[in-house]
Amino acid sequence: VPLPELLTARALFTDVLDIAGWPKRRFYEMLKLSATDPTEKAELERLCSKEGKKDYQAYASESYTYAELLEKFPSAKPNIGHLLDYVPDIKPRLYSIASSSRMRGNDECHLCIIKNEWDATSGRNCVGLSTGWLDELEVPSEGIKMRGHIHPSAVTMPETHATPMLMVALGTGIAPMRAFIEERAAAKRDGEECAEMALFFGARNRQEYSYEAEFDAYQKEGVLEHIHLALSREQKEK
Ligand SMILES: Cc1cc2nc3c(=O)[nH]c(=O)nc-3n(C[C@H](O)[C@H](O)[C@H](O)COP(=O)(O)OP(=O)(O)OC[C@H]3O[C@@H](n4cnc5c(N)ncnc54)[C@H](O)[C@@H]3O)c2cc1C
């Protein structure tokens, strides 16, 4: 996306550049060239050298972001032009629609999102940019407006509900399956002929099976006849 003609520095760093992202090696190289403090320069030279490969990997597994590296090496003061060259733009995150417009109408669209969290080698907790932002979002009662694009789905339903469906999903991969189940439930309630549906779902634990009550109800209703779970942290066999 081309940059607008006028942009504040704040907007550049909050809305455009991925300063909370994962720095590539070339960013270390650029910092090495711009650092003026001898100790910082020597450390960056080591990180960029063959001998410093292990230390570089340790930095990467510590999940330092572009912003954190700039704080760690304060004598390196790349200008905005360099930052535009070396820090990529924030990429859009894709989420699958998890609801059916036939069941819920055109004004409602559900997403099923899991917060992306991991531990760096030191044990500090790291959170993904988009899911961390969503998690902290305080939504007023009137809601908030968000921009998004809709892409055609890579996974599609059979042409008629008379075709049986076998669905296999892991984690948030359940999202499009939930939309299919709702679509078929709406068709069944409208009296259409509907074939059997079966779901195989894998997750780490039962908490990640967030649609349990809903899917159990669809099972009783005869929409989703078969549900098979594989919860890797709750069962011995993998
Ligand atoms: C077609 C498609 C459909 C999708 N549908 C869904 C969906 O329905 N629901 C859903 O929850 N997700 C879905 N995703 C995934 C989603 O798009 C995001 O990738 C996910 O939410 C993580 O985004 P984030 O910004 O929170 O994490 P990011 O900040 O993008 O981080 C992602 C990963 O990158 C690594 N990482 C990031 N920064 C660093 C760093 N500084 N150092 C080291 N490692 C780092 C970590 O391993 C982290 O787990 C889908 C993806 C695709 C491609």
Automatic annotation (TrEMBL):
Residues 2-133 form the Sulfite reductase [NADPH] flavoprotein alpha-component-like FAD-binding domain. It comes from the Eukaryota. It comes from Strombidinopsis acuminata. One of its GO terms (cellular component) is cytosol. Gene3D superfamilies: NADPH-cytochrome p450 Reductase, Chain A, domain 3 (1.20.990.10), Nucleotide-binding domain of ferredoxin-NADP reductase (FNR) module (3.40.50.80). Residues 167-237 form the Oxidoreductase FAD/NAD(P)-binding domain. GO terms for molecular function: flavin adenine dinucleotide binding; FMN binding; sulfite reductase (NADPH) activity. This is FAD-binding FR-type domain-containing protein. Its cofactor is FAD. Keywords: FAD, Flavoprotein, Oxidoreductase.
